[in-house]
Amino acid sequence: MARPNAFAALLPRCGPRELTTLLVPVATAAAVAGGVLTESERRRAHGAGSPSYLTWLLVAAAGVALAAAARGQPLSLAGTPAIRVRLRSVTGLALGGALIAALVSVPLFTKLNDSTTARQAGWAANDLSWLLWAISVVLFGIGVRRLSPRPVASPAGWPVTLPRRREVWMVAPLTAAALVARLVDLQSIPHGLWFDEAQNGLVGAALALPGGLHQVFVSDATQMGALQFYPLGIALHALGNSVWVLRLLPALAGSGTVPLVYVIGSRLYGWRTGVAAATLLAFSAWSITFSRFGMQSMVTVSLDVAAYGCVVLALRSGRLSWYFAGGVLLGLALQGYYVARLVPVVLVALLAYLAVRTPRSLWQTRSGVAVFAVAAAITFLPMGLFALQHPDAYEARTTTVSIFSAAGGGGQSNPLPKSVKTYLLMFGYSGDRNGRHNLPGSPMLDWLTAALFFSGVCLCLMRSARWEYVFPVLWLGAALAGGVFSLLGEAPQAHRTLEASVAASLVAGIFLGEIWRLGSGAGVRVVWIRHVTAVAVVTVALAAAAVMNVHKYFFLQARDAAVWSDMGAAKLAAARLLRDHPRGELWISDFFVGDPTLRFLAPRAQPLTWEPETLPFENSGRDGTIIVLDPDHWEDMGEVKRFYPRTRFEVFRTPSGLPLLYAALIPRRDIADTHGALVESGSTTSIQRTGLSTTGTARAPEHLAATVELVTYGRYRLAWSGHGSVRPKIVLDGSQVAAMKPLTLAAGLHSVAVDIAAHSAAGDLELALSGNPLRALPPAEVFNPLKVWPRGVVGDYRGQDGQRLMRIDPVLGIFFHVLPVPPPFTVVWRGDLYAPRTGRYLLGTKQVATARLAVDGRWITNNLQHFVLQMKPVRLVVGWHPVEMKYAAVGGFFSAFLYWKPPHRETSVVPSAFLRPPGTTGFPATARPTLAAAAGELQPGDIIDAGEP
């Protein structure tokens, strides 16, 4: 007998039908109003505070209103047949074979888990272990199938399902729409290829190699079970390395959750709830985001949802096959992303609830629960053995990101309450700020779905006497726990709570399905107009939610600059440039060095690490040179243009116009033109390609001049190899030097000139690092002094234990990714700064850790703040002015920048065109730049805008 309606008792003149008619529109209006207030509050103060209490009250009122009409007892559980097995029967042989195969695989997996190479593991451990494991799962399934060959009738009280054909006609279009939303433009939306996506591709490709180690768990950067990477590796070997192949499996898995959530919703609450939940999930921006992201998390979530679906079907039908399928799916999921570890928690909590509420009904399912547990244990066997053998590696990731770890709580003594609050607000107020996971900061649900979701939570809580309404609350709580108990600094984290996207769609679908059912008059005689109105309201609500989510993802999120940056769009563009220019000499900034994206998409490329000191290039004879730099190295492109004027410069931008990376394509002839020595004979000047040498010439020239590059800092000796009666005069960096006299020289470019006497014999300029034999300078190290001359300042680096380095740094805009000497260290930079116009200049530094700056012998700044620009005014007249910068590097991250603001110009790093090593003279006229180049030698007009990569 149904319990009396509480609201009917308060209003004795209103029966249940009249009360339902009154409450449904009130509940709907309250839910919509709550969503509107949530959205308006978010827009008014985005990212701070909480929604108004009125919002929560209105949403709660909607749930309470529908809960007042709740009736019925909990769904009865279908009993499972008692298991009776004859050992000599086919069933007994199958079950016994499964047990034997699993036991035999144990020592093989044990050896595999301790092996580092396929050869070390041997064929049996590397391949036979997995074969026996698969055989054990299949044999156990055959045995279980024979234990319950016939369908069992569902107990009374479960929702009536639609005919199979009608279900297919309803679910198929939703699944197709989900596929379209997840597969269209998969190669380019989202734009970029994140580190983890490329790393997953490299791992999958390695696992699928015939001679590779077929391991159970992937450590290092992945820290995840290996099983779900094998299909990815097979797909990559079959279809090639590309972005869309990496994202194909998550896209298919995300689409597969749509019919699965329909099954759960329709079997527990009726087909209307199933349709509503499936539609909301099909167009959920949260689900679409991670379905188009090449991570294994969505594959794991789909296995979790499938396991829940099998459990629901098992409880409804009592068939052991569904219990078996659910256990296998759970075992597979537990070998994937960490969110699957919460599924057993939900199921155990649900069993505990059923044991308290309906112990007799639960006891009837004992055979099915046993089959489920054994199937899950056999499927999880490889990973379970690894967890026992290597618990530290198995728990490394969860330990690192735990909120209770040293850094997990963000320095707070009790971070849990704040974390809970943050995750509760993620649905309708302020969501994940990571551009890879969401439109930064926007709510995870649109306002309409959020209103339906909160109302659905209220409805489920009000109906907590029925286990089928407790289940989604437990599911939702477990899904959120993956984020609540992880790093507070990353909260809210949509990736670790990805399964909440499915649970939220189901909960919102429960509420919307209830409105649909009551509005359509289930159990009540209604007129046709009320039925049409209910269908129209639900259709409009679902369509509005779909439009908002599609617009958010494809029109806002997909073109947001922060999303492009967080997705690694620059690295994707760099990888494609390297892949498309395999024959040239390749240089990349340290921002791209070692990144999996480049190794995945351009595996044959062998780029070199770019530093400003790299210029000028040696004449390698290859088909040109390609330089790919991130925006932090913008000033270096000016140096490239100075040396190689015919270079093609390209910039790749986000849709909003922000630069992603710069590329320079230098023709081979430009590099060749920078080499050679300037030869003067009387009034004739020419460039010879044989270096600083007169050997073999018909007539010895009067003067040789060139720029030479010294790779190593140290003590050098110079000499002329000719044997004439008068030695030539050798001038180095503007000062005459005696032959064979030791000189301490910085690494970098130096100017050299040789005045040859009329009676001197032909010879070569020879140079040697102290202690080494003299050698003639090879042509590759001799540069045309009209095109290449020393630029920059000399840095004197002094580190621990007296280690010292001197080098010429072309630009004082340095991130010390590779330390020149062991830290802590100090640097004193000395050189000359050219003022192209008399006037008031601003000069200053920005660094980590401290720096002092002197101009014309007078100290003007003493900057002690980390990465804060401090500038002081100084009046300079046209010409060269000595500058000195003292820098101290203390800590773990180092950088140093010298800035200026010339008259009527913007602030920028001082370009190398305005710096020269101290004492350097004899520059060509072009060495004195104009103020037009003050913002950098490369101007915007010099760059070809390549648009979106």
Task: Describe this structure as you would to a colleague.
The protein is an alpha+beta fold and 949 residues long. It folds into 4 domains: 6-67 and 148-154 and 161-179 and 187-559, no CATH class; 568-672, no CATH class; 675-783, Toxin - Anthrax Protective Antigen, domain 1 (Alpha-Beta Complex); 793-923, Toxin - Anthrax Protective Antigen, domain 1 (Alpha-Beta Complex), CATH 3.90.182. Helices cover 44% and strands 17% of the residues. It contains 28 helices and 31 strands. Strands 8, 9, 10, 12, 13, 15 and 18 form a 7-stranded antiparallel beta sheet that branches. Strands 19, 20, 22, 24, 25, 27 and 30 form a 7-stranded antiparallel beta sheet that branches. α9 crosses α11 (285-291). The longest helix has 30 residues, at 118-147. The radius of gyration is 36 Å and the shape is elongated.
Task: Please summarize what this structure is.
By secondary structure, the chain is of the alpha+beta class. It is built from 28 helices and 31 strands.
